[in-house]
Structures are given as structure tokens and as C-alpha cells.
Amino acid sequence: MTVRYLAILAADGPSDADPSSDVFRAALRGLGLHRTLTLDGISVFTSMQTPTLDLPSGGVLLGHVFNRRFQPLRFADGIPSHLSGHELTSFILEHYWGEYVLLLPGQGGEGKTTVVRDPSGAVPCVFSTDGRFVTSDLSLATRSGIHQRRINWDFIAHYLQYPHAKTRATGLQGIEELLPGCALHVRSRKASVSPVWFPWHYVRTDERHVSPEEAATSVRSTVEGVTQALADTDRSILLEASGGLDSTIVGACLRGTGADVSCLTLVTPVPGADERRYAGLIAAGLGVPLNDQILSFDAADFESKPPGDLPVPAVTAFQHAIDRIVVDAATAAGVSSLYSGGGGDTVFGSLASASPAADAVKELGIRRGLSTMMSLSEIHRCTFWKAAGLSVRKLVHPTRAPRKPDTSLLRPSLETMAVEEHPWWQLPPETLPGDRERIIDLAGTQVFRDGAPRRYRFALRLPLLSQPVMEECLRVPSWMWLLGGRNRAIARNAFSDVLPEAVARRRSKGNFTHYIGGIYQRQKHAMRNMLIEGELQARGLVDPEAVAAFVERPLLPRDKTFLRMFDLAMVENWVRHQG
Question: How confident is the model at residue 13 (pLDDT cuts 50, 70, 90)?
Fold first, then answer.
């Protein structure tokens, strides 16, 4: 991670975090924070590697920031000094992008401190609910003595029913996460949060791309611009080459950047995830060898210590296995950053429902709707009539619940909880069904970085989840992504001249289901013992009899219910390491 900071916010009354204390400063130096910035009552401590940019208003940007021409922002001359905090936030979101956190002291009569996290969420940001501090790394607060970790059991009960849900709440009392595209306002030790970037703005009619050609041109220039701007910043890169369309597009954009690029792909000991043929095409296009590593069953450890600053359970045994191999490969290659095509399915409009056809009917009429239904039938290899029936159903019942609770293997007496809503779910009523689903899915991608502990060792770049790419892809109507009976059609068209033909025409990709199933068969009894003797069972959350019965039940073909055991073990493991 290239951005590490701890900001002590102005607060009334005594505080155990005195920025002027020699003892406190010495503790932070021991944690690698050596630089101090003072912003009208805010003391900001950062690592020497953290990029900082002072603003004329007295605020500061922490992280990498670029203008809309994809040039790094090295001076703040173009940012007005007379704007209010709200106006300045809007100005930066409109004219710049990047991976950053913005800190603004109270100005004029506002009397409040504002913290903004950019819409990509690349820089971590958690805060104390009493408004005392904001940090990228909760261990900086705990190890410097200003916060004591205590488990938030209400969150744990909610998380067991909605695993991997992205919410403000965390697994620790008194700690919340500032979600991407949101602002924290602190006044007199009272904290409030509001969204400041709205994805639904970009699906409005006046924002739409009107032709597939225009859409493809804009998507290509934006993805290229973002990827190359980040690459020019990092200079040494390990590309996690999955062999799919999205990582291949990112790899194509890295050509000619001047960055030193290495390529890694993972292979499992069971069939289903050997992508060397396709990943090799990415590496060949970059003129580098492909590093293929075997993802062994022994690498998956469901009792590994999670990152000390992670405020929520997020890393499964499978993710631990991937992480170790990627970190070893990145260390051996001597790179500073990791790149992947993470989020590509979502931003490139790969919806699993018939909602794009419903959008086409509502937006352009029955003729475009029928054409989209035909495309749906080709993509999903079903009859036109089935696609049409599902599309009509979407027209009649356009909305879906963003999340449904999973109460399996939990105590029957446990109350079913309502899902905590994400701010991006608050969509205008006129939002089309497909656009609504795309935005809900986009909110779901915010967990990707949480599940990758390697981001604390290396900068983890997900160019396809950057603010400009999200905005540009949202401007593409949902039905355009299905043109010609191909999913992600606009992305395929946009990069048709640089994609290997074998990748461009792919309709499916390998997955790790058989590998994860193999892990389960080898470790299910150990996971069972962990859960029936663990903290979740002691708190009346997990049903030990249901867990024991589930483990003894044979799995049917294509049965993925065993993934529930990995989520429960992940939460149990996280809880055990909070003491």
C-alpha cells in the first residue's frame, strides 16, 4: 500500500491522542509515520511514501491524483481557493480522479472537518464514530494507543446473514468505514456521512452514449488513459493475468507505457482453471514470459491471521492461498504494484438477467427490445421465447432485492435482520431495471480489495474500477453491451484491434470451483470442529448440529452450498484474532 496515514481531527475536550506529545509522535515513528502536516486543527501523520498535495484552501489530498487528460496533478494551481468544502469536493470530483483521500478543515462559518474518499475506494479509510481520528490502517490507531479493539457482535450477526456485504458498519465497536464516493463531516465530536458521487447520474438520458461506435471509442480512450496514467506512476508492475477478456484488456493498455511488466497466472491441481493458453497470449503481447504457479491445496489455510488493520472479515481460505503466491511472485519480480482486470464483468455490463431487454423496450421501443431478447438468447444459449418471457417478467417486476439473507447453518432462533443499505442503492424511481442492477452490482465490487491482503504490501491497481471508467461505462446503455449476441460487446469492439482473437471470441472462462471443492473435501472436518467449538457457536450464532450434519452430507454435482462453510470459517477466524 502506497498511502498510509493517521489524521487526528479537531475535537472538544481531552483526548488520548495529543499530536504534540513526544510519546505519541515517537509511537507513530515506530509505526513508519514520519511526516506531519497541520491543517487548521487537523494533524496528519503519513508515511514518507505517501503522496501529498497541499490545496490553496488549506486542505490536502493524500494519494495519486490525475486530471481528466490523465496527467498527474503535481501542483494545485488550478484548484480554486475560495470554494466552500462542498463546492471544493464537487470541483475535485468533476475535474480530477485518482486514488486518494481528501482532508478539508472547517472553512469560514462551516466549523466542520470534511474527509472525502474517492469513488474507486483504492485508499482505505476508516474513522472513529466520535470523530477523533481517520486512518488508512486501523493498526496505526490501536498500536499507538488511541483505540482499543472490541468486537461489534451486532455487525457479526448481520454479516453472517449477508456475507461480504459492503456497509459503513464494521466488526469493531466505535469504528466505521467511509465508503467510496462518500464524505465524512465532523463537528464537535459528532460524525455524519453523506454520499458525494452518485453513479446514477451517469445513466441519465442526457448522459447516454447514442451509438455503439461512440460508446466503444469513449470506453477505449478512458480505459487506456487510466491504465497508462497509473502505469506511468508505478513503473514496475505484476499483471495478474487470468486469461479472460478483462485482464487481457488491461494488459493491452500496458503496452508502450514504459513500465516494467511481469505476468503471473495461477493453475490449480484439478481441471477447471488452467488459463495458461490465454494468459500466455497476454504475456506474448507484452513481450514478457508468463510465470505460471500451481495453486496447491495446502496453500489454502482457513486459520491464517488476517491483516491486523482489517476491520471486517473478508479473506477466505481460497483468497489466502492466492495472496501468498502473488506476494511471493511480486517480491521475486521486484515490482511496486499489482494490476488486474477485477471488476470488468460489472463495469462492462455483463448482467445475468433479462433486464437489458427491459431497458431497451422502455428506452427505444419494442423493436430494439426484440433485438436485445435475441441477443440474450444467443449469449445464454436458450430459446428466444425463454429470453422474451424473462424480459416481459422484468418489465412487469423491474426491481430486485439487492441482497437476500442467508440463514443456513445459523441458529433457528436467530432473528433475521434487514440488510444495511449501501448509499448507491438509493436510486431515483425512474432508473431503468438494467441500470439499477448494474449500479447495485457496482457497489458489490467494493469488497474486492478487502479480500486481497496483498494490497497492504503492494499498490493494488484495479483500473476498470477507477472513477473515469465507471462513469464512462455507466453512460453505455445496458442493452448495448449485448450487441451481436456477445456479452461485454462494447469492450470487445473497443479493443478489437489489440485483443488476441482467441480471447476476443471467448464465451466462457475457467473458474476455481473444483479447486475450492477440493479444499472443502480435505478440510471440512477441521472447519466443522472449528465452528462447533468456536466463538460464533458460543455466542448463539452458529448451529453446531446443522454444521455437523452438513459436513456429513454428500455434495451433489454442481452443488456450491459448501461455499457457506468457507464464509463461516472466515468470520470465526477473524473473531479469534481480535483478542
Answer: very low
